[in-house]
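Below is a filled-in request sheet from our internal design queue. Each sheet records the structural input a requester submitted and the sequence that came back. We keep these sheets so that new team members can see what a complete request looks like end to end.

REQUESTER: design group, bay 2
PRIORITY: normal
MODE: inverse folding
CHAIN LENGTH: 476
BACKBONE (tokenized):
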């Protein structure tokens, strides 16, 4: 069997499953009053925070994040005041929250707030929540706007992990996406971060960008690893959606690789990373042996959330800031996406929730199945049925739908244990989609025409930062 043909044949227009149900299922039926009730039931629970900063110095043409060009420093300072207010309000609604184990700043480019505003917001977090001494405090960084002063200030603010957006080191590709960033410059930033005690460095790479070829992607991946030796790497596939992201119209669509080329680029990048000592995790992440993600993966504790892959085991993720998504035991919530709407809601004295979804029992069971597939490439449905106390026959139709993949050797079925062949990991979303009750059933055959536009769904896309970057991303 031609493996590439098989992978292309089964590619489907499916989500990336950074949540289940996915953000496309969120509706305005869930609002601030639901959020207030859901928060009130969280007392004592450990939690994590995602703080979104929707500002950048300039827009990269490929970007799918919720961000705009910052108009002035005053706008950033005013936005920080809103974050501070929201943090206090959320903490008050919870009552006595448990320990905070992860704080992630994403965007946009969080450092656009300026060090004093970052400090102000983090001081409020620490004043209102019990932040564990060993908490991971991460931030997405745009190497182009990073100064030595900023880097030197980060450890003092408690940051211990950073995500650097690299995407591609080829000058022709960088020109085609409006992100000129010499690798020597990024190397210097990484070295300065390490000199200042921040050794946990994540990097984003991309495939499917204009002017990329399989060869250029190989060279770019190798040069990035040689220069930076990050602990984690994520390889994202560019999604060209100019109807959703107007600035993507600036990209020359005729220079974009087709579905087959994109697949070979992704496989080539993975091959380079593995040859350079990285271990593949889930759909598109790689980690050095001994990294916390790799250890979580080994022990079956890898998790999937809006930050991509994580070792965070907290049951609650609070989203702070415009467009931020929160994940609570009762459901998902998302803040107003536009800063102006977010500001109005916070200034009115309430929460800024614009949409969300309440989870029912079936959602929770299927979320568990989909998360295990996306993290481990396998799931034991009998074990799932036992743990959730549901009829094992509930999954009969889902198993039957996997038939063609099983026949082609891409998925193994032993009893009710489903396992995706590691060489077919790019298809894990399609396998997970089989268990998604919100998707209309689609036969498992011939979807190559969708591959190009289906790579990113509603939840995720590269930002200034890296794989743990995340996520209140609208288009990607
Ligand atoms: S890729 Fe990063 S730096 Fe570029 S526009 Fe998007 S969020 Fe901003």
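RETURNED SEQUENCE:
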């Amino acid at each position: 069997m031609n493996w590439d043909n098989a992978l292309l044949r089964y590619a489907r227009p499916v989500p990336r499953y950074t949540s289940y149900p996915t953000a496309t299922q969120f509706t305005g039926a869930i609002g601030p009053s639901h959020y207030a009730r859901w928060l009130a039931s969280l007392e004592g629970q450990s939690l994590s925070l995602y703080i979104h900063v929707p500002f950048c110095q300039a827009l990269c043409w490929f970007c799918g994040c919720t961000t705009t060009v910052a108009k002035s420093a005053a706008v950033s300072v005013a936005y920080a005041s809103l974050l501070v207010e929201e943090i206090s309000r959320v903490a008050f609604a919870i009552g006595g929250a448990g320990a905070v184990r992860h704080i992630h700043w994403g965007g946009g480019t969080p450092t656009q707030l300026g060090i004093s505003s970052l400090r102000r917001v983090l001081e409020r977090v620490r004043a209102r929540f019990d932040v564990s001494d060993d908490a991971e405090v991460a931030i997405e960084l745009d190497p182009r706007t990073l100064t030595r002063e900023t880097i030197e200030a980060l450890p003092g603010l408690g940051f211990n992990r950073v995500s650097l957006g690299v995407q591609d080191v080829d000058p022709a590709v960088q020109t085609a996406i409006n992100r000129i960033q010499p690798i020597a410059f990024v190397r210097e930033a990484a070295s300065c971060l390490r000199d200042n005690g921040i050794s946990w460095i994540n990097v984003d790479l991309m495939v499917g960008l204009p002017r990329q070829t399989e060869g250029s992607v190989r060279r770019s991946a190798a040069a990035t690893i040689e220069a930076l030796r990050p602990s984690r790497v994520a390889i994202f596939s560019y999604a060209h959606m100019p109807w959703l992201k107007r600035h993507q119209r600036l990209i020359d669509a005729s220079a974009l690789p087709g579905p087959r080329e994109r697949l070979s680029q992704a496989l080539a990048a993975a091959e380079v990373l593995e040859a350079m000592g990285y271990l593949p995790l889930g759909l598109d992440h790689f980690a050095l042996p001994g990294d916390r993600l790799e250890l979580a993966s080994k022990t079956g504790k890898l998790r999937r959330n809006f930050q991509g892959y994580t070792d965070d085991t907290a049951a609650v993720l609070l989203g702070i800031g415009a467009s931020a998504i929160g994940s609570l035991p009762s459901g998902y919530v998302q803040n107003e996406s536009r800063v102006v709407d977010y500001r109005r809601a916070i200034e009115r004295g309430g929460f800024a929730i614009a949409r969300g979804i309440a989870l029912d029992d079936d959602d929770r069971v299927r979320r568990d199945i989909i998360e295990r597939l996306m993290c481990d490439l396998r799931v034991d449905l009998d074990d799932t049925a036992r743990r959730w106390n549901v009829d094992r026959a509930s999954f009969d139709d889902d198993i039957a739908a996997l038939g063609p993949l099983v026949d082609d050797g891409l998925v193994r079925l032993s009893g009710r244990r489903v396992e995706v062949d590691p060489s077919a990991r790019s298809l894990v979303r399609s396998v997970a989609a089989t268990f998604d009750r919100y998707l209309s059933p689609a036969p498992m055959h011939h979807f190559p025409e969708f591959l190009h536009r289906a790579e990113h769904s509603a939840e995720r896309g590269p930002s200034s930062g890296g794989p743990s970057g995340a996520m209140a991303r609208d288009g990607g």
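SHEET NOTES:
- Confidence is low (pLDDT under 50) at residues 443-462, 465-476.
- The two ends are 33 Å apart (CA to CA).
FILED BY: M.R.
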